[in-house]
Amino acid sequence: MKRYLTLTSWLAVALLGSVALGSVAVRLSFEQLVQQSDRVVVARVQKCESAWGPEHRLIHTTCSFDVEQEVAGAGAKRFQIVQPGGAVGRLAQRTHGYPTFREGQAGLLLFLHRSEHGFRVVGLSQGVFFLHRDAGRQLAIQRLEGLDFLKDDGRPLILTAAEAFARIRALWKDRVLER
Q: From the DSSP assignment, how many helices (H) and strands (E) are in the chain?
């Protein structure tokens, strides 16, 4: 009996541990990221602040960004993303699947959806790409922070930045023509 409980305990820890490491999400294609966006920009993180919500039960983080390049859509040169999770004092709440940002982080290709309090990233962390220079060319590398997918190997999308921008603009143009 003791051996059975030990085995059951280990299985429970293993299963709960794997669930706690990420959120299960529907994988969005590049086209779906564009279709669900109100704006696509390359931006730099200026500041992130976490605070308690109105009922003092949930922590939200607000990050301010400066637009480095407008890729599709239009808006102010500075905008905010508000999302659940963060740290206030010695307490922290983490919401898996949402991207985390660091002050000063630059070269972020963001797929944005308007929300009541600013913007949200489309598809949780699926809508964040790092622009990275490699062997003389600039790449857009998708960041899949804290996400698991049911029918997908979970590999990030990697495109040249030029290809990503061209595809975004073409899909945006088609979207505008359909309306």
A: 3, 12
Distances in Å between the alpha carbon of 7 and those of 1, 12, 15, 69, 90? 10, 9, 12, 54, 35
128-149: b (≥16 Cβ within 10 Å) or e: bbebeeeeeeebbbbbbbbbbb
Beta-bridge mates of residue 50: 61
pTM above threshold 0.85: no
The Cα angle at residue 126 between residues 80 and 149, in degrees rounded to 5: 145
Q: pLDDT tens digits, residue range 15-42?
A: 444 444 578 888 999 999 999 999 999 9
* CATH fit for domain 25-178, picks 2.40.160, 2.60.120, 2.60.40, 2.40.50: 2.40.50
Q: Write the pLDDT tens digit of every residue in 116-143.
A: 878 999 999 999 999 999 888 999 999 9
Torsion angle, alpha carbons of 63, 68, 71, 75, to 10: 60
